[in-house]
Amino acid sequence: ELPSIFSEQVLELKAGDVANPIETPGGIHIIKLLEVRGASQQTEQQTRARHILVTSSAIRSEADTEALAREIYGRLQAGEEFEALAREFSEDPGSALAGGDLGFSSGEEFVPEFREAMAETATGELAAPFRSQFGWHILQVLERREEDLSEEARRNMAARVIQERRFQEELEKWQKELRDEAFVENRI
């Protein structure tokens, strides 16, 4: 990690540039930026999907729940609207009122069974009913996109650098205050 006096100069340089000499109590420093790292583009595949979740309960057995999921799947294949069936049958409180729409996601926040079904289902297609720890799902993949995370990564990195720099400056200030307030008695 560069001291703040140097990092301010480096931010203005391009690879191969040389900064003006910097004078510090330790001497005169000349900085040359050899290369820039970590600026490569970072993308993430995101999928927009919707689903209908049905769960077993004290009044609906596991077999009845599976049968209901398969019935809903058949109705979807026959052309009924996904949104309407999601509002009527889905027991997912987070997406039922939105017609089952989960928005765009990388899939990492979902359970493995859901993530796998989402990855294996083609855009515009329905996945056959599948079971997870939450119940039976019927999934439809609406669209996929590559999301550029480079700018977000750069912002996060810049925030970490600024935070670290402030921490170091405050630490140095605190240490100086401790030294100034310390009483040292020399007995020679």
Keywords:
single chain; 188 residues; alpha+beta; Chitinase A, domain 3; 2 domains; four-stranded antiparallel sheet; 5 helices; 38% helix; 23% strand; elongated
Question: How does this structure look, described?
Answer:
- With 188 residues, this protein is an alpha+beta fold.
- The chain folds into 2 domains: 4-41 and 149-177, no CATH class; 44-148, Chitinase A, domain 3 (Roll).
- It is built from 5 helices and 6 strands.
- It has helices at 4-10, 62-77, 82-89, 112-120, 150-181; strands at 22-24, 27-29, 43-54, 101-105, 126-132, 135-148.
- The protein has a 4-stranded antiparallel beta sheet with strand order 4-3-6-5. A two-stranded antiparallel sheet has the order 1-2.
- Strand 1 (22-24) and strand 2 form a beta hairpin.
- It starts with a helix and ends in a 7-residue tail after the last helix.
- 14% of the residues are buried.
